[in-house]
Structure formats: structure tokens, C-alpha cells
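Exam revision sheet. Question 4 asks you to relate a sequence to its structure. Input first:
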Amino acid sequence: MSSLIRWEPFSDLISLRDAMDRLFEDSFVRPGSRLVPTQGLGSLAVDMIETEDDVVLKASIPGVKPEDIDISVTGDTLTIKGETKLEEETREKNFIRQERRYGSFSRSVGLPAGLDPDKAEAVFENGVLTLHIPKKEEVKPKSIRVKKKDEK
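Answer key, C-alpha cells:
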């Protein structure tokens, strides 16, 4: 036996309205609320790419001088630390909005095995840190030619 369900056309509109309210609230009332870092004052977003010869890590670190960035490798963990500093004191000014973060930041990421951190190179340009960590020779892929049985 089947049961009848009463159709309420406005119930779909109410859920659409709730969705639009959430969208506008997240975008305008609390901008960046989903982007709030979970580690310390700030956390870096990083891209890590593995090529045939090395691992390349890129991190956006705007407003920081290269000499204020500390990069270290311990075991298979890479750590990037730094600090963003407040440009000027604003005691007599009233902020309407202040969303830029100031203070120290740190990010640690695991590295794949077989890298040679002693030969790593870091370049900082236009607020983007690019770190190249080469692979050790014994880890790089080598091709082996296949021969016929009677060929030497």
C-alpha cells in the first residue's frame, strides 16, 4: 500500500532562501571565515610537485622579506618559519576593518624519501617562495634496455 505525501511548493523556496542567506553571510558578513588557519597564528598553503629530478615546493608568503624566512629540514620533515611585521603603529586611527594578520607563522610538511636537502635551492620572488630539493642519484628512475635472448 502506498502513502500520499502532500506537496508543499513553498518548502523548496525556503530551502533555496536559506542557501542564499548562508552564501551571502559567508561571503560578506564573515569573509574568509573558512580560510582561517588552524595552526598557530597563521599557516602557509603550499603546493608540492614531484618531477623526475627533484621535488618543488611553492608557498605564497606576501609581505615578508627573504631574510625573515627560515627553512629547515629534519629527517623527512620540511619546516618553513617566518614573521610578518606591522608596518606602523595606528594608535590615533580607528580601524573599520583589519583582516591582515601579523605575527609569526610556521608550516611543516612531510617530504618523500630519497631527497638531498644539502643541495636544495630556495628562491623568493614577488611574495612566492620556490624551493627545489633534488633527488639523490640512487632514487632517480633509470631505464633498462630490454634485449632479445640471442642479442648481447
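Marking note for examiners. Residues 38-86+102-134 form a domain with the Immunoglobulin-like fold (CATH 2.60.40.790).
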